[in-house]
Prior knowledge:
- The protein is α/β, with parallel strands linked by helices and 223 residues long.
- The chain has a single domain (4-218), classed as Rossmann fold, CATH 3.40.50.
- The chain has 6 helices and 11 strands.
- It has helices at residues 30-49, 64-72, 90-95, 104-115, 165-174, 188-196, and strands spanning 4-7, 13-17, 22-23, 53-58, 78-83, 121-125, 128-133, 146-151, 175-183, 199-205, 212-218.
- Strand 2 (13-17) and strand 3 (22-23) form a beta hairpin.
- Helix 1 packs across helix 2 and helix 5 crosses helix 6.
- The longest helix has 20 residues, at 30-49.
- The chain is globular.
- The N and C termini lie far apart (39 Å).
- The model has no long low-confidence stretch (mean pLDDT 96).
- The structure holds S-adenosylmethionine.
- S-adenosylmethionine is lined by residues 24, 34, 58-62, 64-65, 83-86, 136-138, 152-154, 162.
Amino acid sequence: MKTEIRTTGDGSKTLYVPALNEHYHSTFGALTESMHVFIRSGLRNALLQFDEIHLLEIGFGTGLNALLTLLEAKDKNVFYTALEPFPVDRKTITSLNYGEFFTGQEIILYEQIHDAAFGEKCRITSRFELLKLESPVQKAILPGKYNLVYFDAFGPDVQPELWTASVFEKIAGWTAKGGILTTYSAKGEVRRNLQKAGFTVERIAGPPGKRHITRAVKLPVRK
Length: 223
Ligand SMILES: C[S@@+](CC[C@H](N)C(=O)[O-])C[C@H]1O[C@@H](n2cnc3c(N)ncnc32)[C@H](O)[C@@H]1O
């Protein structure tokens, strides 16, 4: 996928896809958005509830969420599975300016996250195992059960086929009871489709530039 580098509101860079007229992150702040939507609103809740984190990310992209997760969850074992049908090439990753926001040691971990081969479980630290799969969510076959899901596909206006009840049902099937899903979209249709798939859905405060985001929890019993 052809991308261009763009600087966002907090100074961190993201990728822009001209063909879709879509960014990988919020233009108000890539790093700020990832921290808010996935780390503060998802991972921190999961860390309080679960002894180990079994995480599924839909849309690995720049790998920023993986790095932030590794850094935040230092004291727990994390098994991180990420789906990405269009891996970002290394030259593009190097052009992002995350070195300005992380220490040298943290950037080495970021590089290791990108060096990890697709299709193989790779140990990045003693507590963080990464499995990147070059597959679209619609075709993925996963063992489950994940207790945390980062749903970070391109937006519902650009990729409506990924925000459907049937895709969310597939994800619900991979999610453990009580598992948490976070995503940056709070669109009514997205929330309704999550509910149809068996999640309880909460609209919570968003990062700068966005009033709300969505946090969903897989119901103990399917309704
Ligand atoms: C909004 S970007 C976010 C990427 C990433 N989480 C990050 O922080 O850079 C959406 C990502 O979803 C990926 N994607 C596109 N189609 C997909 C599909 N069918 N299944 C899973 N991921 C997909 C894109 O290639 C892109 O990397």
